[in-house]
Amino acid sequence: EAQRLAQELERIGPVNLLAVEEYAEEQKRLDFLESQRDDLVAARNSLNQALREIESTARKMFLETFDAIRENFHSVFQTLFEGGQCDVRLADEGDPLESDILIHAAPRGKRTQRIHLLSSGERALVAISLLFAIYLTKPAPFCLLDEVDAPLDDANVMRFVRLLDGFKADTQFIVITH
Q1: Quick check: 107 and 123 in contact, CB under 8 A?
Q2: Residue 67, C-beta contacts closer than 8 angstroms, at least 6 positions apart
Q3: Helix, strand, coil % (nearest 5) of the chain?
Q4: Residue 125, Cβ neighbours under 10 Å: how many?
Q5: Secondary structure letter of residue 66 according to DSSP
């Protein structure tokens, strides 16, 4: 029996007496790494949740601002062109934060046209309408305009001056002309 037990011990081979201590150290390291991994997973989930909330808030704020600009654009366009139709729309309503913005303008007495088919003066007035629509959404105490009147003829300059006159009570304008 003693000989058989000796052979079994010999088959087992040398015994590492430090194995229990090494196992304990490796178990501590495993526990630490698992804790770190769990922290990273929780941080990733928290960041993803924050991103979803930020995107939701940004989408809501963008749409509210876009709607206000749209209404102001109609009003300013009507003032500058003394009639006509205009609109700004999102090309992709499902993804407003990444969507292109489409601008439609039809001055009084003209058919609906793309902006690039309008005269340079009309395009300038459409741009001024949009600029002031944005301004009305987020007004400031002063405004600097550099050569916005350059493509305008005399009649359109007078319309532009009347538009500025309506804002002068609340805003100081510095207009650099050509």
Answers
A1: no
A2: none
A3: 60, 15, 25
A4: 26
A5: H
- Given a cut of 70, whether residue 149 has pLDDT beyond it is yes
Strand, helix or coil for residue 102: strand
* Token output for 159: 């319309």
Phi, psi of 25 (to 5 degrees): -65, -45
Residue 113: pLDDT over 70 = no
- Which of 12, 153, 148 lies closest to 164 in space, CA to CA? 148
Q: Enumerate residues 6+ apart whose C-beta is below 8 A from 77.
A: 84, 86, 105, 126, 129
Apex 71 CA angle, 66 and 74, nearest 5: 125
Q: Could you read off the pLDDT of 3-20 as tens digits, one per residue? A: 998 888 888 877 777 888
**What is the reported pTM?**
0.74
Mean pLDDT for 73-80 is 92
Q: CB-side exposure of 161: number of CA atoms within 13 Å?
A: 8
Average pLDDT, the chain: 89
> Residue 122: what residue type?
E
